[in-house]
Amino acid sequence: VPNTQVSWLQQNLPGELHIAPYLSTYGYAFNLARMRDRDARVALSMAVDRGQITRQVTGAGEQPAYGWVPAGVPGYTPAQFTWTALPAVERIDEARRLWSGARERHAAPDRLRLCMDASANHRRTAIAVADQWRAALGVKVELVELEWKAYLALRENPGDCDLLRFGWSADFIDAEAFLALFESGHAQNVPGYRSARYDALLAESRLARDAAQRAASMVLAERLLLADSPVIPVFHRVSKLLAKPDVEGVAVSPLGHLATRHLRFTTKK
């Protein structure tokens, strides 16, 4: 469902649009071969007004993402950026300070190239984020849209793309479904992030004797990931499904699945 049509659908087809949160995060991955400076990456992440994006751009109930793992995983409290609670003015001031320092070290470009798969929803979000970066940091952003297969190939070799659209939906209900992506050598490690400490914390979590110890190791790993900022989480997604009133059994799972075996037509009398 295009984000621009959510309000119209709710007003004109009441009860037919089913929106529900699920375990999914939307954001942008850095090409670490080009964006090597940590302060520059943190500055770009801090300059994103996630609340504005979810209120004015997506508008379907998405939640601002200040961490990579979404809420809703049993037994796991997601980590958040250390700057999450900063007032907006202080957050932008710090982002500008970090970006200015990176520019002085010639570690931050004056123009960014953001590559993404073509979609009206992706484009709306990217335009809004690019405008926020321009306003806060004075950096211009070139948006490059590609057909899906071409985009998948580009993720393997991002070339001169500074950032790539990147999202993930859990295929099982566990924090590892999100954290394992950034393990060194993982097939879905789009930014090419490598950290011996991060890898060790994930390995430690897999050998933990109890659930609390396992979760503690994964939280430490997520905190490290957020501190290094190889990825910018923007929001946690919602599923958007349309179903006519005579279709029963529409209920979305935390994984965003809808099994057709649960659907049925109501019997007309």
In short:
By secondary structure, the chain is α/β, with parallel strands linked by helices.
Could you describe the largest sheet, including whether it forms a barrel? 6 strands, mixed
* Structure summary, number of beta strands: 8
Distance between the termini: 32 Å
Quaternary structure:
single chain
What series of H and E elements makes up the topology?
A: HEHHEHEHEHEHHHEEE
Overall pLDDT confidence: 93
Please mark out the parts with pLDDT under 50 across 5 or more consecutive residues, or reply none: none
Strand content: 15-25%
Please estimate the helix content: 25-40%
Radius of gyration, in Å, reads: 20 Å
Strand order of the largest sheet: 2-6-1-5-3-4
Number of contiguous helices: 9
Class from helix and strand fractions: alpha/beta
| Inertia-based shape | globular
Polypeptide structure, described:
- The protein has 269 residues and is of the alpha/beta class.
- The chain contains 9 helices and 8 strands.
- The protein has helices at 6-12, 38-46, 50-58, 88-104, 120-137, 148-156, 176-179, 196-206, 211-228; strands spanning 17-30, 63-64, 111-117, 140-146, 163-169, 231-242, 247-248, 264-265.
- The strands form 2 sheets. The chain has a 6-stranded mixed β-sheet, with helices on both faces.
- The radius of gyration is 20 Å and the shape is globular.
- The two termini are 32 Å apart.
- The relative contact order is 0.22.
- The model has no long low-confidence stretch (mean pLDDT 93).
